[in-house]
Design goal:
The chain is α/β, with parallel strands linked by helices. The chain has a single domain (5-159), classed as Trna Endonuclease, Chain: A, domain 1, CATH 3.40.1350.10. It has helices at 5-14, 17-22, 82-102, 128-131, and strands at 30-36, 42-56, 62-75, 79-80, 108-116, 118-119, 135-143, 146-152. The strands form two sheets. Strands 1-2-3-5-7-8 form a six-stranded mixed beta sheet. The radius of gyration is 20 Å and the shape is globular.
């Protein structure tokens, strides 16, 4: 069943976080919707979660340091593409700009979550989640059982086209194996 981007946003925003997690979406923290980021645009959803990191001090004591874990969600009714990635990076830049201007001493991490009914597998964009831990792509499926999210973009070595027989030899004139 197809529905609008707003329907998708409404479902994610109004559904309790534990239920979304059971349905396959990596989400946590307070949800904000339609976040205006100045010249960078309007993010569909942003979640903010205060977490703590234990650090070992010079005297070997442990100090808990708070920081914000910020997830930026870009929702697409249709296919997630490279343009979606560029768009969400703009939002990330807007969040960083805001935090550096108004909260310069705040420690934070930003993660990027893109959700659509499919993912463009015809270019290198599909490999981003396997290269960067802070990027996730999700395909949503809405059917009689409600909505489910399936993580996408983890490449499968079977489809890489590589062979065990592949050898690398230096390209030197006097090289002999």
């Amino acid at each position: 069943m197809k529905f609008s981007e707003k329907n998708l946003e409404d479902i994610i925003f109004s559904t309790p976080t534990p239920l979304l997690q059971q349905r396959g979406l990596d989400i946590e923290g307070a949800k904000l919707r339609q976040v205006r980021l100045g010249i960078y645009g309007v993010a569909d959803l942003i979640t903010v979660n205060k977490v703590y990191v234990d650090t070992i001090q010079e005297d070997r004591s442990v100090k808990r340091i708070p920081y914000l874990l910020i997830d930026i969600f870009e929702l697409k009714q249709g296919k997630i593409s490279f343009e979606t990635f560029v768009q969400i990076l703009k939002y990330g830049r807007g969040v960083k700009s805001y935090l550096s201007k108004f909260h310069p001493n705040l420690d934070y991490a930003i993660r990027y979550r893109m959700i659509g009914d499919s993912v463009d597998e015809n270019n290198s964009f599909y490999f981003l989640p396997s290269l960067f831990k802070n990027i996730k792509l999700y395909k949503y499926i809405y059917d009689y059982d409600g909505i489910n999210f399936i993580s996408q973009g983890k490449h499968n070595p079977i489809h890489e086209g590589l062979s065990k027989e592949l050898t690398f030899e230096p390209n030197y004139p006097n090289y002999h194996a």
